[in-house]
Amino acid sequence: MSGHARKLTADQEDRLSVWRAIAEKRVPYIAALLYASRYVNVPGIETLGAVDPRLRVFLDVDAMDRDYSDDESAQALVHLMYHVMFDHHALSVAKLEADGTLCPDLWRMAADAAVNDDLEDAGLGFPSTVSTTAEKIDMERGLSVIEYYDDLARRAHASDMEDVFSLDDLAGDLFDGAVTLGTDLADRASLAFLTRTWEILDLLAPPAEDFEVVAAVQNVAEAILKDKGADAGRLGRWAIEVTAPSVIPWQTVIGGYLRRAVRRKPRGTFKTFSRASRRQSVRLRMPDGSKGRKIILPGTFRPDPTIVVIRDTSGSVSDQELGEVGREVLEIAQRCGVPEDRVFVMDVDAAVYRARALSEKDVLRSASGGGGTDMRLGLAAIPEIFEKEPELVIVATDGGTNWPETETTFPTIALVTSDGTDTTPDWMPSVSVTGVAA
């Protein structure tokens, strides 16, 4: 196994794009997870793919390109996304806490069997390397991951297979957040390597925050219900459960994005002549020792992040709700250390109106517009209005609008009002003011 995890090269990104496009075409409802995931190239990982709880997908891209077809590689991505959808990582932690012991190898087998049941029920294939199906482990199809695991553990203990599966391993990797689930048992060969290099991996692929994972999974569930309805077997029942009213308030989700935006601001200090230097000036000394001209030194400053709130003022969203959203965003921004003059409000209906800083008087009490609705105009105007791209753009709308087909170059999240419908594209995360939506 290679000792280095690394970012994907341009050629590898191209291969991944092909696999991801095939996966999305065959299973459109998983698009949100496919595009929210962070992909890491791990040569010699010894498995077709693995995923951790923070949406980091580990692939040996060159080996996959060499040894497997594009269809098989796309199937592997779908398989990994199903592990995330059904929260197999969190279930493993809960199982460990309940039983006091857990065998990672058997858990991966149980999770693979459960995933492959669902893929087969959905009329989808699964990677040829997958070694665990209900049939292969001589069990009835359609069981839960817990049921598969309990029976596997019982049989393994009865057969004294301690040396094969480390049956009483307390799975320290679970506590470290490094548990991976993938397409076959070779995951265990890669796990020690991933755990050793966790800090490096954080730099290569920053882990997804909880709210990002929740939002992406919610997106998947809503897409399933829209595409297949509630009669899609276990998949449909899962989607109904996931889309039930959430206990996570939208302010928490927006706050998470704002904190991330603050961390994304330019690091270090910059020079400017609009601010005096602490040294004020220096005087040059000429070659003959005489004093030369006095040079004014620039001062330094640390830039604050820029946050933009686009408000849908077409008339279908009430002024009261727009005002409440604005006040909440301002309060969250202030808690995150973003000053009022770096939070801008931009009203959009069928036209784009002037972006106003929240430090201006009565910005939240007045709104411009009231005609048609096209949030594409507002998003397209961002690069023209702001010299540098904002660290975050929040679009407050009821969803009755068209959206850009391609992803914006700046982070964007839609805030769908309480009486609205989420129509956002797969690439755009969104949240409902009544809770977490997708």
UniProtKB/TrEMBL annotation:
This is VWA-like domain-containing protein. It holds the Pfam family DUF2201_N. InterPro entries: Put_metallopeptidase_dom, VWA-like_dom, vWFA_dom_sf. Residues 24-287 form the Putative metallopeptidase domain. Coiled coil: none annotated. Residues 307-427 form the VWA-like domain. The lineage of its organism: Bacteria, Bacillati, Actinomycetota, Actinomycetes, Micrococcales.
